[in-house]
Amino acid sequence: MLIGGGNRIAVQSMTNTDTLDTAATAAQLRALAAAGCDIARIAVSSDAEVEACKPLIGMFGMPLVADIQFDYKLAVRCCEIGFDKIRFNPGNIGDETRVKYLVDACKAHGTPIRVGVNTGSLEKELLGEPPSTALVKSAMKHVRLLEKFGFYDTVISVKSSDVKTTVEAYRKLAAECDYPLHVGVTESGTDERGIVRSAAGIGALLIDGIGDTVRVSLSGDPVKEVEAARMILQETGVDKNYCQIISCPTCSRCKYNLKSTVDKLKAATADITTPIKIAVMGCVVNGPGEARDADFGVAGGGNGKAALFVRGEVVKTIEHDEVLGELLRLVKEKVEAETNE
């Protein structure tokens, strides 16, 4: 898989199983792949963990990245067994001789490197700098060291758990270099709060056109990271190949169970990859006009009736209990028409 250069933005995640437990790690990687993960990372901290990873290489149809902290020899071994990328910081593995040794191994095996800098790993001499500036200076220092040894197959990340710092750092980095960027808000937390924090940071960058691969960092099941990343790509307009459903917040004018309709519609269209926009609105006062850009939708009315509209134009009146069936009929027709073109 290619990152950067106009290629599709890849979704990443990371296993949190015991790397020595090959079966458990394989099961998690399989679940990640099924959820739509494009690239998965595995922490490798010992020779035994390198051996445990051998059977996993090439098993899931997605690239695997070895996450190395300090031991450059482990990074070299990961290159040798076929990991698709190495994530490490050149400043963490010792003197330049060690960096060159690893770079030579990466060159020999065609293995890219991700330089990953977090606010928690900044060099002491940078701690007085504004955090976003310090992140960029640290990352570029490591990148220049790789360039010194003729290595350019590099991806960069500059992450913070603070959304504003993260966004500022990536904007500065994007203005300074042309390397592919791995974007994300690190240590974003759990569940809703972590997803919102990640969406705020990653979404702002994607809207700016910054980012070549993304990871949502959540505590817990990494499959949720992939699901959240996919939604962020969709809602920022990067991925249009899905069924987008919009709905109004409702008020007293809404005379039908709008939320139940939306929930059923979401479940029925979850696997659709055709770009479709559906609006489920509470009333006809503003509904069709506010959702004029939707392919089609409904707006509830009184007396058990609802208006069915296409591109903002009402085409007929239907019963409330016909809403779901009519919308799914239109979805099916559009999917079939797109497929047959």
By secondary-structure content and strand pairing, the structural class works out as alpha/beta
Our Rg estimate from Cα atoms comes to 24 Å
Q: Mind summarizing the main beta sheet?
A: 8 strands, parallel
- Summed over residues and divided by their number, the pLDDT gives a mean of 92
Cα end-to-end separation: 28 Å
Q: Report the principal-axis shape.
A: elongated
Residue fraction in strands: 15-25%
- Walk across the major sheet and give the strand order: 6-5-4-3-2-1-8-7
Query: How helical, in percent, are the residues?
Result: 40-55%
Task: Find the count of extended strands (DSSP E, 2+ residues).
Answer: 13
Order of helices and strands: EHEHEHEHEHEHEHEHEHEHEEEH
Low-pLDDT stretches are none
Summed up, the helix count is 11
Describe the protein in words:
- Helix 1 runs parallel beside helix 8.
- The mean pLDDT is 92.
- The chain is elongated.
- The protein has helices spanning 22-35, 47-53, 72-81, 96-109, 131-148, 163-176, 191-207, 222-235, 258-269, 287-290, 323-340, and strands at 10-14, 39-43, 64-67, 85-88, 113-118, 154-159, 182-183, 213-215, 243-247, 276-281, 296-300, 305-310, 313-319.
- The strands form 2 sheets. The protein has an 8-stranded parallel sheet. A 5-stranded mixed sheet has the order 9-10-11-12-13.
- The protein contains 11 helices and 13 strands.
- With 341 residues, it is of the alpha/beta class.
